[in-house]
Amino acid sequence: MKKIKSPWYGVVWIVIWTAALVWFLSSGMFNQRESIGLILVWAIMVGITVFLLIQHLRVQMKQTREPVKPANVKPSLNGPCPCGSGKKYKRCCAGKEG
Ligand SMILES: [Zn+2]
Question: Which of 6, 9, 62, 92 can bridge 87 by disulfide, Cβ–Cβ 3.0-4.6 Å?
Answer without folding.
Answer: 92
